[in-house]
Each structure stands twice: as structure tokens, then as C-alpha cells.
Amino acid sequence: MQRKKGILLLAAPCAIVLLVLFIIPMVYVLVSTLREDGLKYFVKFLTDTFYLKILWDTILISVEATAICLLVGYPVAYFLARTKSKIKNLLLIATVFPFLVSAVVRAYGWMVVLGQNGLLNQFLQAVGLIDKPLEIMYTYKAVLIGVVHLLLPYMILSITSVIQSIDENIEYAANSLGASPVQTFLKVTLPLSTPGIVSGCILVFTLSMTSYVTPKLLGGVKFRMMSTMVNQEVNVNFNWGFASAISYILLFCILVFQIVATMATSGTLKRLGGAKNA
Amino acid sequence: MAYLEIRNLTKKFGDFTAVHDVTLDVERGEMIALLGGSGCGKTTILRMIAGFTAPFSGSIAIDGKSMAGIPAHKRNVGIFFQNYALFPHMTVFDNVAFSLKLQKLPREQISAKVNGMLELVRLTGMEKRFPRELSGGQQQRVALARALVMEPALLLLDEPLSNLDAKLRVEMQVEIKRIQRELGVTTIIVTHDHEEAVSLADRVVVMNAGHIMQIGTPDGVFDYPENPYVADFMGFTNLFDGTVAAVDGETVTVTDTNGNQFRAHDRFHTGFAAGDAVQLAIRPDNILPADGPGENVVTGTIQNVTYKGVVSRIDVEGVLKDALLHINIHNYDSGKAGARMDAKLPADKLLIYKN
Q: Residue B134: its chain A contacts at CB < 8 A?
């Protein structure tokens, strides 16, 4: 009991910071909106197809970004976790290297590549694959590319750390019992890496849903996401009530995703979680 | 033709040769132990037999069929890992049924086989548990059942008992032997523990630095190691140098570096000549206390007596040059540290090797 209290004490500084800087302002924003305008702005958002389209685009882009990050990231993570290469640590550092460059700089980088007269269009025209430049900048595609590039390391790192903790002998055991490499992956490695997949997906989805700089710079005024809308309502239209309504709808969607993702895999997670204590 | 034939097997990792030209025959139903310290190549041999890693050169054949190019999942070789390597996300039943489900056997047949196997390893009633809910000994039985249920052509055991406490270890030793006899499965055990090797196996293969040092029956290897390395590994802690003084048929007279005279038997028919540099070896348990001088009797001063339960270990000073003579004696109650002691190194227990 004494020990339990001691551990709680360790969490106290973080809890206080979260409470003061995060939860209290969040509650304050919600309460003041509801007091001044009631549910007016929630209704406005949920009944206008213009806004619903933006919500839908935000969800769609986040789901797609998560799926792409998972499909691209898993093989990389598996390789990083299992390689016996001498430059393994170097490769791991290379994975997190993009974190050293801010999202703003990276978005500008993509503008150079994807623009009307960008590197990509110049290249495709030079080799004769297209006649006139592709419209990528300020579309859904540009934002998706930017978001995937931004968030891929989170997926790779989450999955790598979990695969590293899977005993290689377990895979060998499956092999010796008659499972081909593909069967071993599907029946053993993949289920055992669920915790990494879940945490990676939650991270990427959440960060994608709330991403601001990337859609702002690569989507411009033509393609909007929820965060750019919030900014517009706060800084351009000075409609704080509407901004907070949008924020809460966004928050709600993220929470639903997290709860569904956790619940769908809770059986596996529970079994695996206990395994470490054995 | 032997059931398992290993011919000139060599494995290299870069410049390092882990397994060096190993040739070994294992008969059907036999239980063989690969014994050696860490890095001696025994686990690498196991991994090559299982198909996890390919040999650099040489061949492996099971029941006349070459294993070259056959992937691990098509070899039907059961393997038991030191850390069990159970599937943590599956129940005991599903762990054991894993290979049978891959073979797409009918459900009733899987169920019957798994239950039969769980009965054999005495785990009936544990089907629905997950590995983490089992004790170490139970997890080990699941791992054994999982490897055996597919009726493997060959069973490989990697350090099967090293994770268990002393009491469970003896219990599992008996258990593994019982199950192996009952099923008659050809088995290879990898271990670094010579007691484990001699108590489980029909034959013991002692390895060092990728080479086979000796192949023999457990008592052969344990009592009469053929070279100083195996002697040292099997617990012949008294290992000292000498020079042959005279040879009379198979009886060799040796003067050690401290001037003691010993008579020894040329058990391995090495053929010695006067003046040969040799090494002598004797197990501490084979040295007897003596009363007064006689053949092969030496005298020294007791430096230290350590009570070890069944035996007491006595370290005697002044017999060997730069080393203590170790003697194990049951129910020791005579001289303490500082006393003089006469000890006899019986000629038939004193092994002699050419240097």
C-alpha cells in the first residue's frame, strides 16, 4: 500500500501539469461555449454538408495514412527488428532522423517536389509519361503524401520495439512444427506484434487527425482539414464558439477510434500483456 | 546405414569456423548427447539439423534422405528450446495442436492426439490454460508435447533442463527418458552439463571449438576420457605433467614434475616410450586415503577441507608442482588443515595422455 502511494506520487507532477494546462482549459472552453451558445454550433456543424465533408475528408485521410503507414512501415520495422547488420543502430537513427526537421520545413520540401513546376512534374514530363503537369499540390493527395511522410517513423518505431521483444525461437519453433515462413508470419509473428500495430495505428491516426501544418501548407485553401478549420474560426472569423465545437467533434472522433481499436484487440493484448510476467 | 548421418559437416561465420568437419552416425531410436561448453558448436549443429541455418559444407541425411535444400518446415524435425518458445497467444491445447492443424487433420483426430500427448506428459486438465499461467516445469512439458505430437523423424532438445531447479531437474530427466523410450523417437540433446548428458543419453559426443573430442558411452566418456580436454570437462580436476621413466608392456612408470613416481595403465593403447612428455589425470573421487607409503602413494599437507554434503573436498599441498591435489572423500572425519596426509592414486584410475 505504501509502495503504491509512492508510485502515485511519481506521476503527480505530470498529472498536475496536464490538469492545469490541458484539462482545465479544455473544460473551460466547452463550458463557456455551452453557456453562451448552447448546442448551436454543434448543430450548425452537423447539419451543414460543407463542414461534414471536411470532417469526412479528415477521417478518410487519417484512415488512409494509417493504413499506408502500417503497410509500408511493418516490413521496415520487421527488418529493423531482426537484422543482424552492423549498421542496425545507424538504420534506427535514420528512421528517426526526419524528426530533426520540423514539419514546416518538410511541408515546404514537398511543395518543391509536388508543385505545378515541381521536381515530380518536371521529371514525368521529361521522360514523356505525361503531357501536362499533374494537379497534386493543394489536393487531398498532396496532404496524404505529406502526412504519411511525417508520421511513418511513429509506426515503424512502435512496431520495431514490439517485434524486437518477440523471441526468435518462437518463430523457429513454428517453422519446425511445419509452418512455412508465410504461415509462421500469419499465425505467430503478426498476432504477437498486435500491441505494436495498435499503438502505432493509434499514434498515426491521432496525429493525422490533428495535423495542422501539413494540410495548411500542402492543402492550402482548396483542401481543408479539421485543424485548419479551427484555426480559421479562431484567427480569421473570431468565432471561438464554433472553433471549440469543431475541436470537440474532432476529439470525439479520435476517442471513438482509440476505444474501438483498443477494444477490438483487447483479448490479444490481455494475453500478451500477461506473458511478460510469466 | 545409420538413421541420421552427418558427414563432414562444417559451418563458418565469416572467418570463424563454428563447426569443423563433424561426422556422426545416430541409430534409430538412439538418444545422443552433444556435450560441450558455450561456443563449442553444439547448438550450431542442432540448428543445421533443424534446417534453421545451412551448412558451409558437408551433408545431413535422415533415414537415407538428404536434407540439403529442404526448408525447416518440411523436415519433420521436432525441436525443444531451452526457453520453451511456447506461443504465448495460444492455449496449451492450441500450442500442442499447432502442427496437426497445419497438417489439416480432422478435428476429432487432432483432439484425440493432443489429449493423448497431454496425458503422456501428465498435463491433462490444463488444455485451456495459457503458457503464462503455467509453472516452468509445466511449460516444459507443453513444449515437449508440442514437439512430439507431430511424430517427428527426429527430436532435438536444446539444453532441456538448464532452466529448472535441482529437484525438478531430476524429475524431468526421468520423465524425458520415459517418454523417449515409450515413443522410441531418435533424439539429440544439446547440453553443457556432463551429468545431464551421461544420465540421459545412450551415447555422448564431447565437443570443443567445433571439433568432436570423443564419442562414447556415458560411462566410457565419464570414467575414461580419451584426451586431457575431455578429462578436464568431465571433472578430472587433477591434471598434471610428467615424463615417462619406464615402460613394461601396458604398465607405464611416470615421474611427474615434482619428482613423484606413478604407475599407470596404457588404457588407450597409445604406446609410450621412455622420455615421452605426458599428462596424467585423475578424478578427485578416485583418490583414496592411504596409511603409509606404497605404490602410487603421495604425501602432502592438507591446506583446506570443504564440506560439500555427500563428500568433503580436501585440497592437498606439496604433492603437485604449482597446484593442489584435489581429493573427494565420503564421511571425512580425520585430519584438518595443516595435517599430513597420505593419498593413493590407483594405477587403474590414473589416466595417461601423450603430450
A: 278
- Which H/E stretch holds residue B320? strand B311-320
Tell me the CA distances in angstroms from A53 to A45, A60, A135, B282, one per residue in order. 10, 10, 21, 88
Identity of residue A40: K
Measured between beta carbons, the chain A residues lying within 8 angstroms of B81 are 169, 172-173
B340 vs B302: CA distance, rounded Å: 6
CATH superfamily of A26-273: MetI-like (1.10.3720.10)
Model pLDDT, residue A49: 94
Gap from B133 CA to chain A (nearest CA, Å): 7
Q: What type of residue sits at position B278?
A: V
Report pLDDT for B136.
Answer: 86
A161 shares contact with chain B (CB less than 8 Å): no
- For testing contact with chain B, the best of A177, A265, A269 (most B CBs within 10 A): A177
Of the candidates B50, B83, B133, the beta carbon closest to that of A176 is on B50
Longest dimension (CA), chain A: 74
d(CA B11, CA B40): 12
- Give me the helix-helix angle, A140-164 and A88-96, nearest 10°: 140
pTM beyond 0.80 = yes
In the three-class reduction of DSSP (H, G, I as helix; E, B as strand; rest coil), residue B239 is classed as strand
Q: What are phi and psi of B122, to 5 degrees?
A: 60, 50
**pLDDT confidence band for A277 (50 / 70 / 90):** very low
Grid cell of B162 as nine digits: 538448464
Cβ-proximal residues to B330 (8 Å cutoff; 6+ apart), any chain = B310, B311, B312
**What domains are there in chain B, each with its CATH number?**
4-230 (3.40.50.300), 236-354 (2.40.50.100)
What are the pLDDT digits (tens) for A15-71?
A: 999 999 999 999 998 998 899 888 999 999 999 999 999 999 999 999 999 999 999
Q: What percent helix, strand, coil does chain B show, rounded to 5?
A: 25, 35, 40
What distance, in Å, lies between the first and last C-alpha atoms of chain B?
A: 36
Transcribe B136-200 into DSSP letters. Answer: HHHHHHHHHHHHHTT--SEEEEESTTTTS-HHHHHHHHHHHHHHHHHHT--EEEEES-HHHHHHH
C-alpha torsion angle, residues A250, A254, A260, A261 (rounded to 10):
150
- Other CB atoms within 10 A of residue A67 CB: 14
Tens-digit pLDDT profile for residues A116-133: 888 999 999 989 888 888
pLDDT surpassing 60 at residue A274: no
Please tell me the distance from the alpha carbon of residue B120 to that of residue A238, in angstroms, as a whole number: 76
Contacts of A84 in chain B (CB under 8 A): none
For residue B81, the chain A residue with the least C-alpha distance is A169
Amino acid at position A163, single letter: I
Which among B131, B133, B134, B100 is positioned nearest to B117, based on CA atoms? B100
Going from N- to C-terminal start, the domains of chain A cover: 26-273
ipTM of the complex: 0.85
* Spans of chain B, pLDDT less than 50: none
| Torsion angles phi and psi, residue B135, rounded to 5 | -75, 170
Measured between CB atoms, does B83 come within 8 Å of chain A?
yes
Mean pLDDT across A75-96: 92
